[in-house]
Structures are given as structure tokens and as C-alpha cells.
Amino acid sequence: MECYNYALLEVARQLRGFTQEQAANLIGISQGKLSKAENQIQQLPEAVFDSIATAYDFPVSFFKRSDDQSVEEHFYFRRKITIPVKTIESFKAQIRVLKLVLDDLLEPIELPECNLPSLSPDEYSVKEIAATIRKKLGITNGPVPNLTATLEKNGILVFKFDFGTNKLDGLSSITSSGHKIIFLNSQMPNDRNRFSLAHEIGHIVMHLGQGRPGSEELEQQADEFASDFLMPEDEIGLMLYNLNLSTLAELKKRWKVSMRALIRRAKDLHCISENTYRAFQITFSKKGYNREEPILLAAETPTVIRDSLMLYKRELGYSEKDLMRIMRINENDYYRWFRISSIIPLNFKLSLS
Fold it and tell me: What is the DSSP string of 34-50?
């Protein structure tokens, strides 16, 4: 019998949102047998894997691949506490599959090295860390320009897709091959995505790979980093006094952050009082700004992964079916995650073995 990776059985099931009972019924085996297989204490006949592949909409080859070797502690993401456990499990499974798929896709691609340092908030203030990372990324004064492009040039992958919920903003992780990657929810407005990107940079430089479990403290540190990174106190501080909706709109256009982020920054820097901050929140709620603010910021489009797909297609003549075979996924997942809507300039070099 061919070698199957039983660790991927639970991942694939959770990605599809099936309970063990539902999955067992679809596959045509008992729940007990599926449970033992997922726990790697009982093997399944090859014919059952054909049924599993059909039920989970994966090619059989998916279950013959190596598992994700990156550890669970690498998962840091902005979320609301109201998300059901099942939704979290499905989302984490989706990320695990995407990391495996991206490692397969990018294996022959020469990408920039990530040279951002790891800096502990136990040794430096978050403000100092944010200033150091701005300098490392070549951001001197003023607002941060295209943050997505800046990160990709510095070896951090950015992947944007629909998370299937508006209660998750972003997540940072590292693949088995060592690629640092930020996943962004395409449902979120662009001002919020920029803050999420900065938040996840905070996790990458302060927490990723440090063996520290996720906690509210780490989320607060990442939020503080994002504010310091996008809106340095010595540059924006004097602009945050005497705020009104008109000045907030102008500041939003200049600094490319949400109005909500601006008033929070003003409160944290003691430029406005707690009462004024609450008054703005009430106004935003009445005007519906908590759902969608006025003044839409231009979208920042990640290009590295799409460039890589085009390299395969234009340089080597790969079809989309060929790419699906490389990544060991079926059409539904391929088009959900990797649909290419336009021709992207090629910026990376494909090395052939």
C-alpha cells in the first residue's frame, strides 16, 4: 500500500467544516474508524482514500504529501472573541493547507530574504521597535507608502483572500520552508488592511518564533506597534489636537489609516480627552462609520505569488491543471485562492533543477 499522511485527514476535514460523524457518513466508514485514522492508530485501505478525496474535494496526491512542520505557536491573528470554535478550526486548517501549497509553488522561486530583526518587547520599548523597523524598511519620515510592496521587497509574503467571516482581519505565520507570510482578509476595507499588515509585522518581529503563546498582551503589543509604525508620535502628534470630522478626513488621506485609528492614536497620545474619544465613537456609530468610513483608500495588491504563477505559465508553459497538480489541490480551491485576473509584471527569477 502506498504511503499516506494520516495527519492530513483531520486538516482536510476541518477545512471543509465537517464533523467526524458527517465526514464518516460521506466517506462510508464508521466514525470510530475515521477517528482512529486521524489519530494515526489505524490504517485505511487505499480504496477508502479515494472516497475521502471525493468527500473532501482534494486529489488523492494531497494525502501523500509531507505535513506542515511549522508549529502551532506561529499562529497569531487579530480576532473577535465571538468567533465559534468550529470557524476557528476551519480557518486554521485552511491556513495550514495554504502554507503547504505555497511551499510547493515557491520551491523553485528565488525570493528576497527577510532581514527584519527579532526584537523582544522585554528588552526594548514597542515605540523603539517600531522606529527600528521603519528604518530597516527604508521608511524615513512621514506616512508609510505602499506597505504591501515594501514588505514583499523585504522578503515577507502577503496573501489576500476571503476568510469567510468578517470577524477575522489577518494572521501572520511561517511555512515549513521558512517563508514568513501575512494573510489578509479581502473582506476588510483597505485602511483596515493596512493596520492589520502593520499589526502582523509587530507579531513577526516581536513574537514569531519566540515560543510565546498568543495572549491579549501580545495583541495589545502588536496594536501598539502598528500605531507607532504607521503614525510616529513625533511626526503626527501635533496634528491630533482640535480634531473634527473634516480634519480626520484629511489626516486619513495623508496617513492612509482609518479615522478610528486616528482618534485612538489621539487618545493614547493624550491629544484628546477620554470624553472626546467617546463622543467620536458615538458619532461614528450613528453615521455607520464602524462598518464603512468615508474616503476609500486605494487597495494595495500583493504581486509575488501572482508573479510566481505567471512565471510557471509564461516561462515554462504550465497550464492551470499543471499548477493544480504541483500544489495538489482541485479546481475549487485553486480558483478560490489563485485566480489570476490580469497579467502581472515578472519580478522574480525561476531557477530550474
Answer: HHHHHTTSS---HHHHH
